[in-house]
Every structure is written in structure tokens, then in C-alpha cells.
Write a structure and sequence with these properties.
- The structure is a homodimer.
- Chain A is of the alpha/beta class.
- Chain A is 47% helix and 11% strand.
- The first copy, chain A, is globular and about 75 Å long.
- At the A-B interface, α2, α3, β2, α9 and α10 of A face α2, α3, β2, α9 and α10 of B.
């Protein structure tokens, strides 16, 4: 029997008014008191449930259902977004997952509204969509580096809230995860990328330039959490200095989102007896 | 220690001149003499290797590499294509997999060359692409149902060979898998879909109509295997009446394709010492 949460992450990690990023303990494991070994078992068990719910959601999607789930992953470099994809989304049928990474916008993307590429990547009915970075980059990297003036990025918070309301109204449950790594842990992880030849490919000199702006990023993240953690699309602040905890927590949040939808097997849209008779009548 | 193949599937299942579909034993387990339980362990072990090779391939793709792998899955309804995706591709990082299902062409797709939608779905560098059905439908369902006249589909075999040569020349290893289910086993699997409410969504009355044309499909599959199993992109005929065997074999073929590429970790394209010094110089 896998061990249980003392407080569900949907409660323990939900960003509410007054959340203060600067004072958050990023090595903590809110709601989980059983350590790493037990966490692996819990995640594996949650993965089985997740897989079952996901298949029902997928079946719904194939049968005219309109529901879907969107997991938004935000975090500084090395926060562990890729690990979440591998270790949490890796637990469900790849057929039901639509993964999209958002890098620096292409020239074509820059020419259009910043939400356009987001709209085009929204999950199809029946699917779990995953955004590795997202429209929030347009109020994070863009704000920190002043890629557009304040009067352009400032209205985006409200615009994003309205956009997400629209997405939710169309049948998508949005789970927004801020993977929060401490500045010291980030240094250790970047150093590892510089020490291990099998990690070189993950390193980019630009990562160090961005890291120099850490206080500005903290401010920008705080603003995101203050202004876009809504009832329809709340943020979850996930302490990520322990990778195992972050994976455990996101797996649980995703399971919760699927269970909230509680998809049922779609009924037959054909005459079962008649089709059985047709099959039986075939000579081979 | 996981048990071993007596003959590698790349040898045992490769379609060579003279392969006769009608006389193939589709409940056989060529090259594997250890039964189902051992097969699960073997697949899990192969999955670990597959995951490691896949990560190196992905790293290469991120660092300017041009290599990729394309797994083409063909088979009659119920042959187990979806199960391969779930149980074999589910073993690797979702980030490195590009899955594409080819259904009935859309109006837009019908207006263009039949290979156009295929070209657009080819895997990006560093990725494992998976085609659930493929351009072969244009000489299978299209031929059987005479959706275009013979003088249109007849030249497609050569055209497909030339197209695949081009894809291979651009750096993609192609693994073509024909999942071969017997007509009796297909009947049993369709009946299951009619008996179990959690399987209804997989059933389509059209499946029974297509099944009525089984001999024509056999003929069309035989022609595909005769005419498009080339040195640059061979077919593997995978007996699929035992789902566990098909998964084991495809996992092994995929592992072999990755190992053949033998991707190495890309070297640093930056000055490691200089970047380490920059990182250490940061105040936090």
C-alpha cells in the first residue's frame, strides 16, 4: 500500500492572496511526510490511476467529448520541467499526451499576437496538453529583459486571465505549476551541467546571463502569482529543490485534475446486438 | 538478468524475397523461446537501454545533429498498433517522441499529393517519429476499395521506395513494422470490443465492412511486402496474435535502430572553464 499525503497538494500548494515567494522554503515537502522512497511508490500508484483516467478521457475525446486537461509548467532554468515530462507524463499513454515547448518566438510568431501560438497548441479533446514554458514567458522573460515597454506587458496579466477563462469555458481544465528552485540549488545544477559531459547539451551560456537577473525574475514571478492565480486557473507553487517531491506533487495534481473530470466510458453509438450478428455472420 | 533472443528479430522477422503472408504462423514467437513472463522482463530491460540511447539522440538533435528514427506501424484493425505506442514508446521520454496517426485524409489532404502529409509529419532531428498507419494506406485501403484507379496506385510502390530513400539519405533510420494478426484472432478481438463497454469506443461498424474484404487486404499487404521491403527501409513481419510478443519484438527492433545510430553525447560548444568561472563569480 503506497503511503498517503497528510495534506493534498491541491490544498497545500495552491497560491492564494498573500503568497510570498521570497519567504517560501523551496527544500520543503508540503503535505508529504514520508520521504523519498515512499514518494516513488506513491507516484507509481498515482500513475496507474492517472493512466486509467487518461484512457477514459481519451475515449471520450474519440466519441465527441470536449473535455481536456492543460498542464502549464513554468520555472527557471534547471527547475526540472523536463524531468516532470519524463517522469510524470511518462506514466500515461503517449497517444493521449500533447507536449509543446515554447522557446524564443520565431520571426513569424513575433509578427502575430503573443497568444496566437498558445491558442494553436491547446490540447485537442480527450488529451492532456503540456506546456513546457508558456504564455507566461510574455510577462516573465519579456518583462525582465524589457523586450516590450511596460505599457505593453502590463495589461497582459488581465488579458491572460480572460484568455484562460475562455479556455476553461471551452472544456479544458488548467493546472498551472510553478516549479520553484532556490538560487543556490540552481547554481549547483548549472555547475553539474558544466562538470558532466553527458549534461553539456543542456547548458547554454545564456543561462548564466539570465541567472544574473535572478532578483528581477523573482519579482516577475511574484507578480504572475499575485495576479494570475484565479479561481478558474489557480497556480500551484511547487518547491522543487527536491526533484522527487516536485514529481510526486505534479503527478498528484494531474491525477486530481483527471479525477475531477471523472470521465466515463462513452456509450455505444451503434447497435451492439446488430453488429455482433454481422460479425458472427462472416464466414471467417 | 533478462533472458535473450535465440535469433534477433532484425534477422528473424525481416521480410525478404519469397515471404508468403498466407503461410505465416501468426501465433508464433520467432526468435523468442522463453514465453510471456520472461518477455516482460526483457522488454523492461530493453526499455532502459532504449531510453538511454534516445536521450543521447535527443541531445544530438539539440546540438545540430540531423539523425532521427521513424517507426512505421501498419496492421489491420485490432492488430495492436495502439498497444505498441502505449507499451513500447511509453518506455522512453515523451519529449523525444513524435507520434502521428494517419486517418482518412481530410479534404485539404485529399487535394494535395498523398505523400505531402507524410512529409510534414517526418520526425525532427533527434526524435523518434511514430506513424500509426502511414503512406502505405495509399496502397492498402485505397487499393482494396479502388478509391483511385489501378494506374494511379500501381506506380506508388516505386514512388514510395524512392521517397523513403530520400528520407533515409536525410538522416532518418526507417523501421517498418507490419503487425500481422490472424483473421480468427481479429474476430475474437472485435467481439471483445462488442462485449465490453470499456471497449465500445474502439469499435466502428466500418471495421466489420473492411473485415469482409480480408482476402483483398491480404493480397494488398502481400504486394506491399513484396515490393517495398528494400535494403534502405526493410519491412519486419511481426506475428501479432500474441500481443506480448509483438511488443517485445518491436521494442527490440527500435532498440536496434537506436544502437545502430549509436549517438554520442555532443561535445561542449562553449568554453567550459570560462563558463564555470562566470558562474562562480556570481554573488548568489
Amino acid at each position: 500500500m503506497a503511503k498517503s499525503w497528510s495534506t493534498e497538494p491541491s490544498e497545500a500548494l495552491r497560491v492564494r492572496a498573500g503568497f510570498d515567494l521570497a519567504s517560501a522554503d523551496l527544500a520543503a515537502t508540503p503535505g508529504w511526510e514520508h520521504g523519498e522512497k515512499s514518494a516513488e511508490k506513491r507516484l507509481a500508484a498515482d500513475g496507474v490511476h492517472l493512466g486509467e483516467e487518461q484512457e477514459r478521457l481519451f475515449a471520450q475525446g474519440r466519441s465527441g467529448g470536449t473535455r481536456s486537461v492543460l498542464l502549464v509548467l513554468q520555472g527557471m532554468d534547471t527547475a526540472g520541467k523536463g524531468g516532470i515530462v519524463r517522469h510524470v507524463l511518462g506514466l500515461v499513454d503517449p497517444q493521449g499526451v500533447q507536449l509543446r515547448s515554447f522557446g524564443v518566438p520565431t520571426e513569424k510568431e513575433r509578427a502575430q499576437h503573443y497568444l496566437q501560438r498558445i491558442r494553436e497548441a491547446l490540447p485537442a479533446p480527450g488529451h492532456i496538453g503540456v506546456f513546457d514554458r508558456s504564455h507566461y514567458e510574455d510577462v516573465l522573460v519579456v518583462r525582465v529583459n524589457q523586450l516590450v515597454p511596460r505599457e505593453v506587458w502590463e495589461p497582459r496579466y488581465d488579458e491572460i486571465n480572460a484568455f484562460e477563462q475562455e479556455v476553461v469555458d471551452s472544456g479544458t481544465v488548467i493546472v498551472k505549476v510553478a516549479l520553484l528552485v532556490s538560487v543556490a540549488e540552481q547554481k549547483a545544477r548549472l555547475r553539474e551541467r558544466l562538470e558532466r559531459p553527458d549534461k553539456y547539451w543542456k547548458f547554454n551560456p545564456g543561462d548564466i546571463d539570465e541567472r544574473a537577473k535572478w532578483p528581477l525574475y523573482q519579482e516577475a514571478y511574484q507578480a504572475v502569482l499575485d495576479r494570475t492565480s484565479t479561481d478558474h486557473a489557480p497556480w500551484y507553487a511547487v518547491p522543487a529543490d527536491n526533484k522527487w517531491y516536485a514529481r510526486l506533487a505534479v503527478g498528484r495534481l494531474l491525477r486530481g485534475a483527471l479525477e475531477g473530470l471523472d470521465p466515463e466510458w462513452p456509450p455505444a453509438d451503434f447497435d451492439v446486438a446488430a453488429e455482433t450478428a454481422r460479425l458472427d455472420a462472416q464466414p471467417f
